[in-house]
Design goal:
Layout lengths: L7 E5 L6 H9 E5 L13 H10 L4 E4 L15 E4 L9 H6 L4 E2 L6 H17 L1 H10 L9 H4 L9 E5 L3 H12 L3 E5 L10 H7 L2 E4 L13 H4 L6 E5 L8 H10 L2 E6 L19 E3 L8 H19 L11 H5 L1
Parallel strand pairs: 1-2, 1-3, 3-4, 4-5, 6-7, 6-8, 8-9, 9-10, 10-11
């Protein structure tokens, strides 16, 4: 692969913005069609994506959710940019075999997801959603109720938060919780900063915040058996992936009082049935996988894509290159 003398024509189905977009435009033409702005929602399969790349006469692809496999990798691409921390939408081995560099965007949404974790803890422990609803519905004092009693909670300052998974998001969450006056403990077998193993963390933490990646070792990590080890009355928040926990066991723990509150930002299949028991419970806050949904996330990954392409054009290996072996073979 050699991009040094190639004029770039960039087809982007990922949302791009900020100074990185200006840098991309300085390198060539940019055809911008963000997938999340399409109505109805549009996610290309590999065949349709290849057709669009050919139609636009593009030699660089930047995508987020579209499938980059098969026919896409038969095209003479200078590079593929996946605006994800882990480019799971790209067949990286096939791209390497085709000599196509693949860029990624590690940590692009770390601050955004960490902020949502903190927000979910506040919302779940202070009854913000039902309190808001009582104002809107005019039921604040219905039946002689007193909101000061209904929505009392413990302050976070002085409590212990357990961070499970100490990657970019876990680190970003840790200093935010510490800034609230919380004691931070960490469980991560790969992090030298870890203070606890998982079992001891679950037994000690007043708040458990999940930030681990889903791997064969972490799939179903918070099982029914592990939930029994959680300190009674603790708060559980997951802004990572639903595959890390047993949702039925968590629901039972919340109903029984083993857990006092929860905040969840992801569900298997990106969907929670409206008939699910959690929907009727006021001590859980449910959000539809919006942890990374900030304009800053888009600006961050755009900047990373621009930096990666600039390095390739200089004949260098970018820091965010997934398959550096293609440069050695190019």
């Amino acid at each position: 692969m050699s991009a040094k003398n190639e004029k770039l024509r960039i087809f982007a189905t990922a949302p791009l913005r900020g100074e990185g977009l200006d840098r991309l435009r300085a390198m060539g033409d940019v055809i911008l069609e963000p997938w999340l702005e399409q109505r109805p929602l549009r996610i290309y399969n590999s065949e349709k994506l290849a057709e669009r790349i050919i139609a636009e006469n593009a030699n660089v692809l930047i995508c987020e959710v579209d499938s980059c496999k098969g026919p896409v990798l038969d095209l003479p691409l200078v590079a593929i940019g996946s605006t994800r921390g882990d480019p799971t939408n790209v067949d990286v081995p096939a791209a390497s075999a085709a000599g196509v560099p693949v860029l990624r965007a590690p940590g692009r949404n770390a601050d955004a997801v960490a902020e949502l974790a903190v927000a979910l803890v506040f919302a779940a422990t202070r009854g913000l959603v039902p309190a808001d609803r009582s104002i809107r519905e005019g039921t604040v004092y219905a039946g002689g109720t007193n909101p000061y009693l209904l929505y009392r909670g413990w302050q976070l300052a002085g409590l212990t938060v357990g961070i499970v998974g100490y990657g970019a998001v876990g680190r970003a969450a840790a200093w935010r919780f510490a800034g609230l006056g919380m004691k931070v403990i960490i469980a991560d077998p790969f992090a030298p900063e870890a203070t606890h193993d998982l079992d001891s963390l679950l037994a000690e933490a007043d708040v458990i915040s999940m930030h681990a990646a889903v791997t064969p070792d972490t799939f179903g990590l918070i099982s029914a058996e592990k939930i029994k080890r959680i300190k009674r009355g603790a708060v559980y928040v997951n802004t990572a992936r639903a595959a890390l926990h047993d949702l039925d066991a968590l629901t039972e723990a919340l109903a029984s009082g083993q857990l006092s509150a929860m905040g969840l930002d992801h569900f298997n299949g990106e969907h929670l049935p409206v008939t699910h028991q959690l929907v009727g419970m006021d001590n859980v806050v449910l959000t539809p996988h919006i942890g990374g949904a900030t304009f800053d996330t888009e600006a961050n990954h755009t900047s990373m894509m621009a930096s990666g392409l600039e390095a390739l054009l200089r004949g260098e290996a970018p820091n965010n290159l997934v398959n550096p072996e293609v440069l050695k073979n190019g």
